[in-house]
Amino acid sequence: MAQESTEIARGLRRRDPDLLDRLIEQYQHRLLRYLVYLTGRRELAEDLFQETWIRVLERGHQFNDKYAFSTWLFAVARNLAIDAMRRKQPSSLDGLMNNHDDDDAPFDVPATAHASAFDLTLQREQGEHIAAGMQHLPAEYREALVLRFQEGMSLEEIATVARVPLGTVKSRIYRGLSALEPWLRGAPL
Amino acid sequence: MKPTNNDAHERARQLIALAGPEAVSADQLSSNAWLAAHLQGCASCRAFAANSVDAIHALRAIPIAAGRALVSTTQLRVRHRALELQRQRERLWLVAVCCVAVALSALVSTFVLWRGFAWIAARTHLASSVWQVAFLVFCVMPTLITAMLLLAKDNQLPPYTDYRG
After folding, report:
1. Quick one: closest CA in B to A123, which residue?
2. Residues in chain B whose beta carbon is closer than 8 A to a beta carbon of chain A?
3. ipTM above 0.90, yes or no
4. Which of B18, B66, B86 sits opposite A28 (nearest CB)?
5. For residue B158, what pLDDT is reported?
């Protein structure tokens, strides 16, 4: 991992466009997923996706290869998301909360292949409930859950991305998961 | 102080939440005897564990993928910006080279002029203080003339009038 980070850092300092092409391909789904969960809006997430890579190009020399590239990438994306929301309303991540009034559902839940019809229905139903529950969670809980369980980041890495103490990360994950519980039990969509 | 029953539930739930589905897997439970014992005797925490596992699996099953168009547009924009930055850097490099050239030529011309003034003074038997003052005036003359011209231009401007008259 350290070797990979060093190579990425070297390439970013050179502003190597081929390296950036490769990184965009490699992290496309993870970054977009993080931004969609963070903002709760697909359109905004796609704009921020592009802005994030431009920022990576411009500030690539600031990447410290002692961290994983994904940690730095998510931190850059997070800062841009906060800036975008500040332009709309003068608050930080709070501005990303309570956006479930939007009509468009950003978390589309298509059925997965290789499962029985019953499993698919159940899975889809659970997915819909969780997706709906996620939209009702405060952004910082959503962020912690996504980084932990979808991105598989360590608690320390999440603390680095979110710039909060480790204890706060733990409590956000615990509270986020607890808050999702009613939705799994079938809270109304 | 012995932990209260509520603390025990809280601790168990935090362990489950922080470790995810792995916390309630057989392997993990065998390494965490306390959690295993607690889950055996506590139905609500068992339900929390089961719900957490389901929630995490459901969360992982939600596929959000970037479209091909988004990726290629981003790559195009990044390449375009990289080109812009490269051009900017080249321009900056050119400006830096020009600055160095101007500084060097200023240094060389000052030296040549100094020697020229000294030579003229030697030929015309002028006192060194005189030609040195003349040299100084010659050097600051362009600045003085420019300043005077600017001042004169300012004086010719019509007097400021408030828009309300």
Report:
1. B58
2. 13-14, 17-18, 20, 48, 51-52, 54-66, 70-71, 73-75, 77-79, 81-82, 85-86
3. no
4. B66
5. 65
